[in-house]
UniProtKB/TrEMBL annotation:
Alphabetized UniProt keyword annotations: Methyltransferase, S-adenosyl-L-methionine, Transferase, tRNA processing
The gene coding this protein: trmB
SUPFAM superfamilies: S-adenosyl-L-methionine-dependent methyltransferases
Gene Ontology MF: a single term: tRNA (guanine(46)-N7)-methyltransferase activity
Protein name: tRNA (guanine-N(7)-)-methyltransferase
GO CC, one annotated term: tRNA methyltransferase complex
Reaction(s) the record says it catalyses: guanosine(46) in tRNA + S-adenosyl-L-methionine = N(7)-methylguanosine(46) in tRNA + S-adenosyl-L-homocysteine
PANTHER family for the chain: 3-DEOXY-D-MANNO-OCTULOSONIC-ACID TRANSFERASE/TRNA GUANINE-N 7 - -METHYLTRANSFERASE, PENTACOTRIPEPTIDE-REPEAT REGION OF PRORP DOMAIN-CONTAINING PROTEIN
Length: 250
């Protein structure tokens, strides 16, 4: 039997999914805002990651990214956390060549699919990371360096006992706000009304964030946010979607 070669994409998948242990070998549980899905990484997705990571992928590091060096320009950088399969992120990058996009996703098939679509569309103003977003924010993003943060349809963790796992918490918003440029934005969207209310409460309580909603709550879906297949299916089923758009005034 021929031994299967472990490629970069396979190793990246293994790295993301590995558990954490203490120095004496005991399992160390971390409260995370995501569940690692173990969907199959297709051969095509694996090849796209292996062949294009040097150009489109970034790794976690302990120093801040030099965005001017990475993108070759000084255009504002928009960070999206949890881009899923990446289609809408690639479309936004295509529609806004005067902006740079940085996407974070821990689901390796999604990372592979996003890279494949970016290569197909010859998108140059996009980079992707396969790592925990909170660690990227903490270690790799310089203060005042982001033009905006996008968080679309994060896991709602709808059970009350799991609400602590929601990524949108006061400490998370404070961390994001620290990374934003003056007038940088935070744009969130969810199809879970209770989570929308939670998002609104957390964002409204943050000093220096201004709600752009005329009614001080939600905004209609802006044309620049692509409508996803998931969202279209929800509309057909009568599900609501709530967009929130806040601007940093600090």
């Amino acid at each position: 039997m021929t031994e299967q070669k472990i490629t970069f994409a396979d190793q990246k998948r293994k790295t993301v999914e590995i558990a954490e242990f203490t120095e004496d070998g005991r399992y160390k549980r971390k409260v995370r805002s995501f569940v690692l899905r173990t969907g199959r990484l297709s051969e095509f997705q694996r090849n796209m990651m292996n062949d294009n990571w040097a150009e489109l992928g970034l790794e976690h590091q302990t120093t801040a990214f030099d965005f001017t060096q990475i993108y070759g320009n000084t255009n504002p950088v928009i960070l999206e956390i949890g881009f899923g399969m990446g289609k809408s992120l690639v479309e936004m990058a295509m529609q806004n060549p005067d902006k740079n996009y940085l996407g974070i996703e821990v689901h390796t098939p999604g990372v592979g699919a996003c890279i494949a679509y970016a290569v197909e569309k010859q998108v140059k103003n996009l980079r992707v990371i396969c790592h925990d977003a909170t660690e990227i924010l903490r270690d790799c993003i310089a203060d005042g360096s982001l033009g905006g943060l996008q968080l679309f349809f994060p896991d709602p963790w709808h059970k009350a006992k799991h609400h602590k796992r929601r990524i949108v918490q006061p400490h998370f918003v404070a961390q994001v706000q620290l990374k934003l440029m003056p007038n940088g934005f935070i744009h969130m969207a969810t199809d879970w009304e209770n989570y929308a209310e939670h998002m609104l409460e957390v964002l409204t309580s943050a000093v220096g964030l201004c709600n752009t909603s005329a009614t001080n709550n939600y905004i209609p879906r802006p044309d620049f946010r692509p409508l996803t297949k998931f969202e279209q299916r929800g509309h057909k089923l009568g599900h609501g979607v709530w967009d929130l758009y806040f601007v940093n005034s600090l």
